[in-house]
Amino acid sequence: MRKGFTIILLFLISFVVSAQESTSLQVVKGKVIDSSSKKAVAYTNIGLEGTFYGTASDNDGNFELKIPAELQGLQIYFSAVGYKNKMFPVADLFAKEFNLIRLDAQTYNIGDIDINAQSKVLYRILRTASENVSRNFVNQPISMLCSYENEKKQGGEARSRKATVRIDDKTGYAAPSKTDAYKNRNYQFSDVLKNFESYSLKDGATNMDEILGLDLARSLSSVLNPGILSGFHLSMEEDEAVINNSAAWVIRFRQPAPTFTGSGDFYATSFEGKIYINKNNYSVLKIECWVKTPKQNSLGRDLAIGAGIKDFHTGVAYDFSVTYNSKGVKFISLNKNYTEGGKAVTEHTKLIVNEIKPILENQITSRDYFEGE
Q1: Which of helix, strand or coil describes residue 222?
Q2: How far apart (Å, rounded) are the C-alpha atoms in residues 302 and 214?
Q3: Dihedral of CA 242/244/250/254: which sign?
């Protein structure tokens, strides 16, 4: 009996070791250069043929890619606009501590350039960022303790409202999607300070669903939705940014014919923005967007306007900005200009996440759509 137990134990140990070896990662490092000028080739698209493993060279041509050891029998390709593609056996790159990849220039007639090929590396960066949201941000139940500010100016009147907001998220960023965010995020307003009285539901509306919906990483919406990326025009900004001491790719995006799934706005006619992606771990660092729409529901940009509704915003132009830290969303701002009741309105809203911690006791199970609830 004892001998049999020992044999089983040894078998299990060997199985675990074998499993660990099969998933061990090999780091491939190197630099991509022009074979003639010896200058770095930035943003080269690098990937394993037939898999989702890939990366891009940085502004100096350097790259680093972690590859499972069992994939050493595959081919790795290097593709950059203006250069001939090159492929190598992965095993050849495993054998070297540092790989110098030389690409040969290729000339094109202007009519032969494939715009989609220029964007391929950007699509890969955005897909990778999307796939890594659950790993880069907190992926457990959390409570977010926030400060809320809203200011609305119309004519000679200025209304302001400040409050403390607690947001409970039962799943954090573990399974980001619009459905998951709606089901698992609830919030509560307290300590409300304002300089006006709320005589209508519209006056008391917090519009928090609209604000939280701007956290595109939580819902994997818009440019972070791989399923609709092909509908965006993408371009890389030449100057790299540094956010939270991290070097970032800055990718401009624009949807020529805005859709609801792409813009998040029911009636958008213009939608463009920038997204900042950490070059080290592909985490989302910041998102900025600019939107125009002829009309908008006063309770939020993602709501339709019913046939009998006459009280809505017109001539709307707005921008929003969302910044992130290592845990998740840190700051959201929304700035709107529109016409309401024939008068021009300027409205600014901010949500500042002061602290993210494991979910508190007495979990919030509802949403304060109106401040008096």
Answers
A1: helix
A2: 10
A3: negative
Q: What is the DSSP letter of 223?
A: G
On whether the CB atoms of residues 163 and 190 are closer than 8 A, the answer is yes
**C-alpha torsion sign, points 125, 131, 132, 134:** positive
Q: Which of 41, 19, 147 is nearest to 85 (CA)?
A: 41
Order of strands across the sheet that contains 25-34: 62-68, 25-34, 99-103
The count of other CB atoms within 10 Å of the CB of residue 2 is 6
Give the total number of structural domains in the chain.
2
Per-residue pLDDT, averaged over 216-224, amounts to: 96
Whole-model pTM: value is 0.70
Give tens-digit pLDDT for 109-148. 334 434 455 577 888 889 999 999 999 999 999 999 999 9
70: containing domain: 20-113
CB distance 331 to 349 below 8 Å:
no
The answer to whether residue 43 is domain-embedded is yes
Q: DSSP secondary-structure letter at 57?
A: -
Cα–Cα distance measured from residue 131 to residue 23, given in angstroms and rounded to the nearest whole number? 19
Strand order in the sheet with 54-56: 54-56, 45-48, 75-79, 86-89
Cα–Cα–Cα angle for 238, 63, 38, rounded to 5 degrees: 70
**Of 113, 146, 161, which residue constitutes the final position of a domain?**
113
Residue 148 and residue 88 in one domain: no
Tokens of 33: 């250069």
What integer pLDDT is reported at residue 118 of this predicted model? 54
In a shared domain, residues 102 and 159: no
pLDDT by residue (tens digit) across 13-71?
343 334 334 458 889 999 999 998 899 988 888 888 777 678 888 888 999 998 888 88
DSSP-assigned letters across all residues of 238-264: SS-EEETTEEEEEEEEE-SS--HHHHS
Amino acid, res. 308: G
Q: 252-283 as b/e, with b when 16 or more CB fall inside 10 Å?
A: bbbbeebeeebbbbbbbeebbbbbbbbbeebb
